[in-house]
Amino acid sequence: MRLYPVILAGGRGERFWPLSRRARPKQLLPLLSERSMLADTLARLDPLAPASSAWILTARDLAPAVRASVPGVPELQVVGEPTGKNTAPAIALASWWLHGSGADAVAVVLPSDHRIEPADAFRKDLEEAAQTALERNAIVVIGIPANRPETGYGYIEAGEPVGSRARRVAAFREKPDRETAARYVASGHLWNAGMFVFTPEVMLKEIRAHAPEIASALEGMPAPGEPGSEQALERYYAAVPSISIDYAVMERTRNALVLPARFGWDDLGSWAALGGDAQDAAGNTVRGRALLEDVSGSVVFADEGLVAAVGVRDLVIVRTGDVTLVCPRERAQDVRALVERLRREADGSALL
Length: 352
Description:
This protein is α/β, with parallel strands linked by helices. Helices cover 28% and strands 28% of the residues. α3 packs across α6 (200-210).
């Protein structure tokens, strides 16, 4: 069995502003280690799937920075999308390029900016999902056991058992209100974290059945580096609709299985999420240089220079070269509102 990671790395991570910018989005930031989150994503796959087997789809303007962040990935396997069209066209494209790689080839679609630990448990689940995908000719989604009523995640309702741990997908549920989310948690629903495992041939079959407009645009698509490949990529993205793989395929197919994860997961949706791995006895999480006196429950990030704080509680403090952000941890999701304001202001784009 050979695994081919397909890493989706086109997002901008606006809730991590001011550190996350258009030219250096969340997946290229060292939020969890000294490496970028994208490099962390690839590192946790080794040795199950080496970086040389990975394909990364990102925005065209980010492709040079992505290549620099993960030098182990062949240059032609970092593909810059001319325009963002959501996840279905990207996954279809990778499946097209990977089909014909052999009867034991399995694609593993992963986001580029999640916290997953421990890595060995993740690799075991990934290997089990890949084996299940091969044996069952199915698309296997790895579901995260829901432990709180999150309204920002999609949910998976698991059906009858298939094999030792996998279950059929009874339904995908869209982002619910809080009351509905609480019911989902109580009934054992799983979070949909966007991790899909399948053979390229199975995915292409499902795309032909449920998203024929994407399938027809794929026909004759050359591999990266072949004559006419850049022009073909432009035509493909101009032709396909902007649609997620969930809407295009997963909510329509009868060939989906879910495997409950046995590892810890967080999508790191905002600065507050970094507080999950507090580094000191007062519950502070610190990256970079900080001088803290009587500070607790805070997330402190210094991209350069020193952050000094006295007598504060439950804050997010981020220092960059040109912006300093301070907000209550409970308001960290609202950082996106600042980004929207900067977009509207005449001189704001320089800070995005």
